[in-house]
Design a protein that fits this description.
The chain has one domain. By secondary structure, it is mainly β. It has one helix spanning 56-68; strands spanning 9-12, 14-16, 19-21, 25-31, 40-47, 79-83, 91-96, 102-106, 112-117, 121-130, 133-141, 152-157, 163-167, 180-182, 187-198, 209-220, 226-231, 258-263, 269-273, 278-282, 289-294, 312-318, 321-326, 340-347, 352-359, 372-375, 381-384, 390-394, 400-405, 414-416. A hairpin with a 4-residue loop joins strand 14 and strand 15. 41% of the residues are buried. This is Arylsulfotransferase (ASST). Keywords: Membrane, Transmembrane, Transmembrane helix. It comes from Microlunatus spumicola.
């Protein structure tokens, strides 16, 4: 995708009293190339302020007129149901994945503080650190639905809405909505879905079938160089999947469905695959799968009570504990009636894992897709309930401190301090 054809517009909202100021900006963009295909695009941006009214009495008149004609306050971005003391500091980062697609930052009351719009699809907005400074990142596409899987890019902006860089399509790999994580070494983890042909007879499909190959890459954000490239079809068999083969031969079989990549304590990565109900520790240097947790070929013995299914957002919360968001159902196959956050104590050397904690919503929410959990600085846990259109914050003892309903779906949700 050409960086000059994105069509995305951004508006920053800084509200003081009854006045609201909007600073238009002029953006200059240029794309870097990798082997003839743009991977990382870099932009420089400036801003042009408004005009000044010279004489004091004229300035006061303008201010009085502006105050009287002030635009009414916008309605909140979400409906707050629970708002108790003890919440962590920070504002709430969400994306509207509906017809009014946008990235949004709101305070705890749902008041809009920052937004971007102009694309047709947005996901995975959050605050990260790049080159020693805070940046706001997200994924966007000018397509919708499944088409967006192969037509997206990731964006890095500073908090003043200046585009720093983008990771764009290169070869067959187009950044997908499911993951964009910046590492301390200035690289980014991205995932992609690449349509290819495969023999689906092992899963009772056609010999010349279509399949979605799950891709993970680590990309150097400064140069665009792809440092690591991993494909699910090279390491994970079709028969590990719990997903059914589509009846429509033109629809690719999404057997793996990669949806999160996170670092492991020893410098490798842990990959979550929704459709195999499993987590994979992958050696960054060789691409080999060191172990599987969950799924049909788990290297760890898990009791039936610890089974997770259709999960998202697997992270090492500490060197011996993995936390994940367990959807429990995809809307057709249900393993648990409610979605939950699960913690597993893992002894990698002994291949032992045990479920040490689970957290559910008091309303027994079931999110059939999407979702995440975030450990906050004060020990609380912030949860985005994906397609259930809910966001919550829990204290360390599981008390519900904040709860709100969203007007549309947000793939993930975060509470972060950015101002």
């Amino acid at each position: 995708m050409n960086d000059d054809d994105t069509g995305t517009t951004s508006d920053r909202h800084d509200v003081t009293g009854d006045q609201q100021r909007h600073a238009p900006r002029i953006t200059r963009r240029r794309a870097l190339a990798l082997a003839g295909a743009g991977v990382v695009g870099v932009a420089g941006a400036g801003s042009v302020g408004g005009y000044a009214v010279g004489r004091t009495h004229e300035r006061r008149k303008v201010q009085e007129v502006a105050a009287k004609a002030a635009v009414p306050a916008a309605p909140p971005l979400f409906t707050t149901l629970v708002n108790q003391p003890g919440q962590a500091a920070g504002d709430i980062f969400i994306t509207d994945m509906g017809e009014t697609a946008a990235t949004l930052i709101a305070d705890g009351a749902g008041n809009s503080l920052w937004s971007s719009a102009g694309a047709k699809s947005y996901a995975n907005m959050r605050l990260q650190t790049y080159q020693g400074r805070p940046v706001i990142t997200w994924w966007e596409s000018h397509s919708t639905g499944l088409a967006a899987y192969a037509d997206g890019q990731t964006v890095i902006e500073d908090v003043a809405h200046n585009v720093i860089t983008r990771v764009q399509k290169h070869g067959d790999v187009s950044p997908d909505e499911h993951e964009f994580s910046i590492t301390p070494r200035g690289t980014a983890y991205i995932v992609s879905y690449v349509r290819t042909k495969a023999d689906l007879r092992p899963v009772k499909g056609p010999k010349d079938g279509l399949i979605m190959n799950g891709i993970f890459e680590e990309v150097d954000l400064a140069t665009g160089e792809v440092l690591h490239h991993w494909e699910s079809l090279d390491h994970v068999a079709l028969t590990e999947s719990h997903a059914g083969v589509p009846k429509d031969p033109t629809e690719p079989y999404d057997y793996f469905h990669i949806n999160s990549v996170a670092p492991t304590p020893d410098g490798n990565v842990i990959i979550s695959a929704r459709h195999t109900w499993a987590l994979y520790k992958v050696d960054l240097q060789t691409g080999a799968v060191r172990w599987r947790l969950g799924g049909k070929k788990s290297d760890f013995d898990l009791p039936a009570s610890a089974t997770f299914a259709w999960q998202h957002d697997a992270q090492f919360e500490d060197p011996r504990t993995i936390r994940l968001f367990d959807n429990g159902s995809d809307g057709e196959v249900t393993v648990t009636d409610e979605s939950q956050v699960l913690w597993f104590a893992v002894d990698e050397a002994a291949r032992r894992a045990r479920l040490v904690r689970r957290l559910v919503h008091p309303a027994k929410i079931s999110a059939h897709a999407m979702g995440n959990a975030q450990r906050l600085d004060n020990g609380n846990l912030f949860v985005g309930w994906g397609t259930a259109q809910r966001i919550s914050e829990f204290s360390e003892d599981g008390t519900l401190l904040f709860d709100a309903t969203l007007p549309d779906v947000s793939y993930r949700a975060f509470r972060q301090v950015w101002r």
